[in-house]
C-alpha cells in the first residue's frame, strides 16, 4: 500500500500569516491527491483534489501544489476558522490511504 | 442537495458484528459516477479507509480489515451497509460514510455523512 506521510505533525502560525503543510507519498500517485480539513466534532471537508483543484466553495486562500510524491497545501492568510486538522489522501491506487494529519494551531 | 446519514448501534460487544447503514438522499446510489465508501476514525486519531462499493456490487476493501469486513448495497432503498465481524476495542471509532467519484483523476471523498460513534465494550 502507498504510505502517506505528513509534516509537521503540529504547525503553529499567527492569524494573517501563511501556513505551508507537506505530504509525501511512498510511491508516485501522480496528481491523484486530496486535502481535507477537519474541525472538532465534524466530518472532514474536501478542500483540494487533483493535487491543485479547489473543491466547490473553498476560498481562494487555499492552494495545493505538487505531483508524484511531494505535495504542499498552502493557506495564504490564515483566518480564525482555518485552525483545524488537515489530512492528505491518495486515490491513485487501492487501498486508499490517508496521511496521519497536521494540526494547525494558533500561535 | 445530497445527504448521507449513518445509522446503527452505538455500542457493540467484543467478538460480535458491527453493522451500520448509510442512507443516501438527494441522489441515486445507482449513479454510475460514484463509489460509496466507509472511513473510520478512532478517538483522537486519524482517518482510515475501510472499503468502498459500486452500485453493481463491486467492492474494494482495506487489506488490514479484509477478512472481517463486508460492504453491501441496496439500490431499492438507496442505502449501503458495513458489517465488521469479530470486533475488539480497537474497532471503537467514529464511522463515516462518503461518496467518491469513479473518475480516477477526481476520486476524492467529496460528500460525507456526519459520522456515527461506535463503541466496542462489554
How would you describe the overall organization of this protein?
The complex is a heterodimer of chains A (107) and B (122). With 107 residues, chain A is mainly β. Chain A has strands at residues 4-7, 10-13, 19-25, 33-38, 45-49, 53-54, 62-67, 70-75, 85-90, 97-98, 102-106. In chain A, the strands form two sheets. In chain A, strands 2, 4, 5, 6, 9, 10 and 11 form a seven-stranded mixed β-sheet that branches. A four-stranded antiparallel β-sheet of chain A has the order 1-3-8-7, with no helix packed on it. The relative contact order of chain A is 0.34. By secondary structure, chain B is mostly beta strands. The chains are: A mainly beta (107), B mainly beta (122). Chain A binds chain B through residues 1, 31-32, 34, 36, 38, 42-46, 49-50, 53, 55, 87, 89, 91-92, 94-101, and chain B through 37, 46-49, 52, 60-63, 96, 98, 100, 104-110, 112-115.
Helical fraction of chain B: under 10%
**Element-level helix/strand string of chain B:** EEEEEEEEEEE
N- to C-terminal distance of chain A: 36 Å
Mean pLDDT across every amino acid position of chain A: 97
Shape of chain A: globular
Q: Counting H and I runs of at least 4 residues, what is the number of helices of chain A? A: 0
Biggest protein-protein contact in the assembly: A-B, 27 and 24 residues
Percent of residues in beta strands of chain B = over 45%
Percentage beta strand of chain A:
over 45%
Measured as a percent range, the helix fraction of chain A is under 10%
Structural class by SSE content of chain B: mainly beta
Show the helix and strand layout:
The complex is a heterodimer of chains A (107) and B (122).
Chain A: E1 4-7, E2 10-13, E3 19-25, E4 33-38, E5 45-49, E6 53-54, E7 62-67, E8 70-75, E9 85-90, E10 97-98, E11 102-106
Parallel strand pairs in A: 2-11
Antiparallel strand pairs in A: 1-3, 3-8, 4-5, 4-9, 5-6, 7-8, 9-10, 9-11
Chain B: E1 3-7, E2 11-12, E3 18-25, E4 34-41, E5 48-54, E6 59-61, E7 69-74, E8 79-84, E9 93-101, E10 109-112, E11 116-120
Parallel strand pairs in B: 2-11
Antiparallel strand pairs in B: 1-3, 3-8, 4-5, 4-9, 5-6, 7-8, 9-10, 9-11
Amino acid at each position: 500500500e502507498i504510505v502517506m506521510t505528513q509534516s509537521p505533525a503540529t504547525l503553529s502560525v499567527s492569524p494573517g500569516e501563511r501556513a505551508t503543510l507537506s505530504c509525501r507519498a511512498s510511491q508516485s500517485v501522480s496528481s491523484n491527491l486530496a486535502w481535507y480539513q477537519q474541525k472538532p466534532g465534524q466530518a472532514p471537508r474536501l478542500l483540494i483534489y487533483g493535487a491543485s483543484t479547489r473543491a466547490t466553495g473553498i476560498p481562494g486562500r487555499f492552494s495545493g501544489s505538487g505531483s508524484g510524491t511531494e505535495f504542499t497545501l498552502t493557506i495564504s492568510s490564515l483566518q480564525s476558522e482555518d485552525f483545524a486538522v488537515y489530512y492528505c489522501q491518495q486515490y491513485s491506487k487501492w487501498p486508499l490511504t490517508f496521511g496521519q494529519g497536521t494540526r494547525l494551531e494558533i500561535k | 442537495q445530497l445527504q448521507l446519514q449513518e445509522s446503527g448501534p452505538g455500542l457493540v460487544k467484543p467478538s460480535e458484528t458491527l453493522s451500520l447503514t448509510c442512507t443516501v438522499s438527494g441522489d441515486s446510489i445507482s449513479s454510475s459516477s460514484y463509489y460509496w465508501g466507509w472511513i473510520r476514525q478512532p478517538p483522537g486519531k486519524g482517518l482510515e479507509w475501510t472499503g468502498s462499493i459500486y452500485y453493481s456490487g463491486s467492492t474494494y476493501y482495506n487489506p488490514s480489515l479484509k477478512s472481517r469486513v463486508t460492504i453491501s448495497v441496496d439500490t431499492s432503498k438507496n442505502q449501503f451497509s458495513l458489517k465488521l465481524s469479530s470486533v475488539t476495542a480497537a474497532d471503537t471509532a467514529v464511522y463515516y460514510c462518503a461518496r467518491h467519484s469513479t473518475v480516477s483523476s477526481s476520486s476524492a471523498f467529496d460528500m460525507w455523512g456526519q459520522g456515527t460513534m461506535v463503541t466496542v465494550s462489554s
